[in-house]
Design goal:
CATH architecture: Alpha-Beta Complex
Order of helices and strands: EEEHEHEHHEHHHHHHHHE
Distance between the termini: 13 Å
Structural class: alpha/beta
Helix content: 40-55%
Largest sheet: 5 strands, mixed
Radius of gyration: 17 Å
Number of domains: 1
CATH superfamily: Protein tyrosine phosphatase superfamily
Strand order of the largest sheet: 1-3-6-4-5
Oligomer: single chain
Length: 247
């Protein structure tokens, strides 16, 4: 069986979304779709490993400022189709940070992302469904919030059960401590500021994703209804055709 978490020097939360049970008794294919944290600091060994995956598409969900200051995927060394779909205009303010330690608050922010970031989410889903787009990876800075929202939608549209989507989301918890320490190393002159973001970085619990998925179901009834509301039903069919395989 393929390994779900892939080790890299320059990122801590790079994972394969393959192998999960999906619609019609099929499974999500391995090594076709990945989720990750920031990909702007990949080492030479990382770039070789990424090249070996045969990536065709990289989707960046970060803000423009994040991409500028933290670096973009190295398309000069690893040629791919690099697409930017910022899911937020700005990052949470310091005043909002305490709420990021509460599952209900975070779930509400995720739900808000679906509305406020609709164009970015739909653009990303359609890009992933396009012929020749796979293998692909989508990422943000931590690989758990914005990436978690897109992962949840994609997996839900593929027919992956809610409990499996929740379990995939919580896998990010193991990586967050390493990410937090890396941020303090990367920004030695701003450790105090980095530590203020600790609740937003470290908080990963299943209740957050359970509440988010529950809110989507309450509003749309089914994920097919959500796909219709977002206008991505055709893209979802494309994703299923390209990502689902028989047992």
């Amino acid at each position: 069986m393929a390994t779900r978490t892939l080790p890299f020097d320059g990122c801590v939360n790079f994972r394969d979304l393959g192998g999960y049970p999906a619609a019609d008794g099929r499974r999500v294919a391995w090594r076709r779709l990945f989720r990750a944290d920031g990909l702007g600091s990949l080492s030479e060994a990382d770039r070789e490993a990424v090249s070996a995956l045969g990536l065709a598409t990289v989707i960046d969900l970060r803000t423009v400022d994040e991409a500028i200051h933290r670096g973009r995927f190295p398309i000069e060394q690893v040629p791919v189709r690099y697409l930017e779909f910022p899911l937020l205009d700005v990052l949470p303010t310091p005043e909002e940070l305490p709420g990021w330690g509460e599952a209900a608050y975070i779930a509400g922010r995720y739900r808000q992302m679906v509305d406020d970031g609709r164009g970015a989410l739909c653009g990303a889903i359609e890009a992933l469904a396009a012929p020749g787009a796979l293998p692909a990876v989508f990422h943000c800075s931590a690989g758990k919030d914005r990436t978690g929202v897109l992962s949840a939608l994609v997996l839900a549209f593929l027919g992956v059960p809610d409990e499996v989507i929740v379990a995939d989301y919580t896998l990010s918890a193991a990586a967050m401590g390493g990410l937090f320490e890396r941020l303090k190393t990367d920004y030695p002159d701003a450790v105090a500021e980095v530590e203020r973001y600790a609740p937003a970085v470290l908080h990963v619990v299943p209740e957050t994703m359970e509440a988010f998925l529950g809110a989507l179901r309450d509003e749309h009834g089914t994920y097919e209804g959500l796909a219709d509301a977002l206008g991505v039903r055709e893209a979802v069919e494309g994703l299923r055709a390209r990502l689902l395989v028989d047992e």
